[in-house]
Design a protein that fits this description.
Distance between the termini: 27 Å
Radius of gyration: 24 Å
CATH class of the largest domain: Mainly Alpha
Largest sheet: none
Number of domains: 3
Shape: globular
CATH architecture of the largest domain: Up-down Bundle
Order of helices and strands: HHHHHHHHHHHHHHHHHHH
Amino acid sequence: MNAHAQTSADPGRAHSLRLAVLLATYMQSANLPLPNAVLRLIQGTLSMTDDQAGWIFTAYLAASAITLPIAQWLAGRLGLKLVYQAALAVFVLGLLLATVATTPLQFIAARIIQGLASGVLAPLSMAIAMETLAPEKRMKFGATWTAIVLLGIVSGPSIGGWIAEHFDWRPIFYISLPLSAYIFLVVALLLAEKKPEKAPSFDFFGFGSFTLALIGLQMLLDRGERLDWFDSPEIWIEALACGLGLYLFMVHVLTSKTHFLNKRLFRDRNFVLSTLIFFAVGFVLLSTMALTSPMLDEILGYPPDTTGALTIPRGIGLVGAFVLMGWVPERFDRRLFVAAGVALVIFANGLMLDYSPLMDWSPVAVAGAIQGIGIGLLMPALTKVAFSTLDPALRAEGTGLFNLSRVYGSTLGVAIVQIFFFNNTQAMHLALAANVTPYRAAAHGGTASMSLPALEGLNHMITHQAAFIAVIGQFKILLVAMLVVSPLVVFLRKPIPAN
């Protein structure tokens, strides 16, 4: 007997179970950007370099991208309830290890553990909730689930910033502990274990080759700057691993009859185009947050609670637009809302190019709110367009790939903006410093000699100015990413109205 059959006679049990897994969904997505507003505090406490700080996000994302495709297979082999509770326990272990970490390596390892568990919790939370719903209600709940994921991403920094400002950065991970205990208890009491009569098959070769390519690319991007790129043998090894994994995966997809990416998915134009747009949304959203919070905290000097609070307008705009989309009648063409959402995200990223070291908090709040509204309009409409023309038999696999595209987009986006940020900061520092000499100071009424404190202050000012210019350069990259995918909206077919 499935969970829907068991809970249909007891709506209270079904509601409690759905609430628990929605809380789990919010918790795992909020923990991804949770340290975003307190990076400076974490770096100072753990003596963490800038490139190591980048691993705080990419380690979590890359780890979740590895376990996400295999989560359903694990549940089918070992049982949904057992795997879910085990993932929850591993997630709690990662939280506890993060609170006691004393070195960068320990903290990054804790984030990897959190990410591995998150990649299992996210799809299985949705699977549990879907089992408690009648088929006709599942599509609407899918939009709610996506809203919870995005809400967690945009609200995580505000929670972390407030806690760190009033207490310390370590307690930001404590808030998930009582939630985890509640979720574990509800699942233990209300979810009946279910194992399929026949264990599901899984394409381990395809999964392994794809994972090899992903890990090789991630390591190359994250360690390339530190190791001076291809002057290091390690980077060559990582590049070869990425190339080999990608080659094996492509050959496997083209020649094998069964693999974990169903080729029939790529015959549906709407699904393919929507997945590419969703990839770009993942690329832009988390990268924007990964740039904005350090800009406010480290360059403009805002305290952690203010830095975190400035992510709230983005969350309000996102949730408000999501709620609005729930009231839009089916007769309205969803492609129009996809186009409007893409346009608003592009407009918001354009506003970010006008950021200035002399600005107050309002431009950040306005741009964030507009971006949130755009994503809130875009996501439910894009989901509807993506799956309306897809064969119902492929929707389960399509959902996994659709959500996987956002995770991969986020992973790649954060890694790329960090690389260009470090490179551009160094280049701009050299360019600005070349124009600051004792002779120029004398020409403008100063003295040709400067004291050591004055030189240190001048270097500090140049460093901040160079970093700010580099941040604006990364916002340009994100703007270009959305501009590149925007023409795809024109080629979307009109969604098939729901029965």
